[in-house]
Specification:
heterodimer, A: 129 residues, alpha/beta, Rossmann fold, five-stranded parallel beta sheet, 43% helix, 24% strand, B: 363 residues, 12 strands, 20% strand, elongated
Chain lengths: 129, 363
């Protein structure tokens, strides 16, 4: 039995949310998946419910209308420590722009930048290592 | 060319020199004179002069010193030095420190001065033009940068979705459910295709040659709706068209098609599922002088904050089911190129109205 994690997915594409939710559940790596199609909504959820949620892995898209991934990180950084402590953020994006990649790497809150499409094998290795 | 457009500042300590210059040239140029270097600087703060003339021998400050002082703060005006007798070292200073364009000998010769000013003005204009071109180029680069950034995302994202679905399908043991995945792949590919078509529209609109022709609106609307009938949401919407066309209205067919295609498609895509019946009312009033077009729908509507941004390149209002953010940008570009106007009024949850005014090309 492999380790299981609780996930929050943030992506403006309803399409990708659907795909990644299924992938995570089917592969057995996910205990639960909570999808958000706007970063704003996810942020509101975290600031309201953040203290009651379990240890969570966030897969965060970058290019989204309204609040994008980096803007989400800026806001996330302002949340109380007891919420932030429970959360591990990975950016999941199809970007190949070096400025984005550098920015994601430089961010303290983003543990790693994963490229789309999400490879479950890669995710498993990263989360369990 | 009306030479009165040339604005000249002339500084000389001898009042009668200023007077005689004015007397000779006031009909030709827009002339400002002063005997004081301090006042000259004040004038330069208030006005944009094309040419500045200064006498070399003035008490307190030479013409060269004056130029040396002003040229950093006011680099644009072309500097001409007026001098009675010049020794070589004064000339060297004038060129090296004052960066003067010409010397004018006293007593000055009418034609010579006229020539010097004409040339100075020419140089002024060339420099201004160059500056403008550089600004345009910078803007074009910036736009291109943004374009490449967003376009690469919008081109790759659907492909990555397809790969994601393939990953998912490979994990599936039940062959039956593969059809579901194929359908998702199909949707993703359609999205990519729409984006590519949009990009081509954008290019045609921005760089393509305009083909002017009489517009038959009945035909145009028919063609556009035929092309978007395949959209799954199309059958849920009722389209009411009201076209009155008198006389011949000429315009760019390509751009008109882009405008109609994007606005109708948007109304079809952004229907409000809460409403019992979705509609789009299209009203066209065309005359040889111009055309008024109104697209009214009872769709999702647009947030007030978003209203002014929706025509920006790659701006996407709303998160779910949104497009690439290029459609309305192209519409706006097309209308601007046709020298028309677009106005949008919208209430969230009620619907949107786009009003477009396009003048005839041969107005």
């Amino acid at each position: 039995m492999t380790a299981q994690f609780d996930f929050i997915l943030i992506d403006d594409s309803a399409f990708d949310l659907f795909i990644y939710e299924k992938l995570i559940i089917k592969s057995g790596i996910g205990n639960s998946v909570l999808p958000f199609n706007s970063a704003q909504d996810a942020l509101e959820y975290l600031s309201k419910e953040g203290e009651t949620i379990p240890q969570t892995v966030i897969l965060l898209d970058l290019q989204m209308p309204g609040m994008n991934g980096f803007e989400f990180i800026d806001e996330f950084d302002l949340l109380p420590e007891q919420i932030k402590d429970k959360i591990r953020i990975y950016m999941l994006s199809s970007t190949i722009d070096t400025r984005d990649i550098d920015k994601a790497k430089a961010s303290i809150s983003i543990i790693d930048l994963l490229s789309k499409p999400l490879e479950i094998g890669v995710l498993k290795t990263i989360l369990t290592s | 060319m009306n030479d009165k457009l040339i604005r000249i500042l002339y500084i000389d300590d001898e009042e009668h020199n200023l007077q005689s210059f004015k007397a000779s040239f006031r009909k030709q140029y827009n002339i400002t004179t002063t005997t004081s270097a301090v006042e000259a600087e004040e004038f330069m703060e208030q006005n944009n002069f094309h040419v500045v003339l200064a006498d070399q021998r003035m008490p307190g400050m030479t013409g060269t010193q004056f130029f040396e002082k002003i040229r950093v703060r006011f680099p644009e005006p072309i500097r001409i030095l007026i001098t009675g007798h010049t020794d070589i070292s004064a000339a060297i200073d004038a060129i090296n420190k004052g960066e003067v364009f010409r010397f004018i000998d006293k007593p000055w010769d009418y034609t010579y001065v006229e020539n010097a000013i004409a040339h100075a003005f020419e140089i002024f204009n060339t420099r201004a033009e160059l500056k403008q071109r550089n600004l345009d180029l910078e803007k074009a680069y910036e736009e291109l940068d943004k374009f490449v950034y967003s376009a690469s995302h919008d081109l790759r994202a659907p492909l990555m979705s397809v790969l994601g679905i393939v990953n998912l399908a490979l994990m599936e043991e039940n062959v039956e459910s593969q059809n579901e995945y194929l359908d998702l792949i199909k949707q993703s590919i359609k999205k990519l295709d729409t984006f590519i078509i949009n990009i081509i529209d954008y290019y045609k609109n921005a760089r393509g040659v305009a083909t002017m022709a009489p517009i038959n609106f009945e035909e145009l609307v028919y063609d556009v709706t035929e092309a978007i009938k395949y959209l799954p949401e199309f059958e849920n919407i009722e389209m009411i068209t009201n076209i009155t066309q008198t006389g011949v209205f000429e315009s760019d067919v390509m751009k008109m098609r882009i405008i109609f295609n994007n606005l109708i498609t948007n109304a079809v895509k952004f229907q409000d599922p809460k409403k019992e019946k979705s509609f789009i009312k299209l009203s066209i009033r065309a005359t040889p002088a111009g055309t008024l077009i109104t697209f009214e729908d009872n769709g999702l509507g647009i947030k007030e904050d978003d209203l002014e941004k929706i025509f920006k390149m790659f701006y996407r209002a709303g998160a779910s089911n949104s497009g690439s953010g290029i459609g309305l940008y192209i519409v706006h570009e097309a209308i601007t190129k046709l020298e028309g106007k677009i106005k949008v009024t919208s209430t969230l949850g009620e619907g949107s109205i786009f009003e477009i005014e396009i003048p005839s090309i041969n107005k």
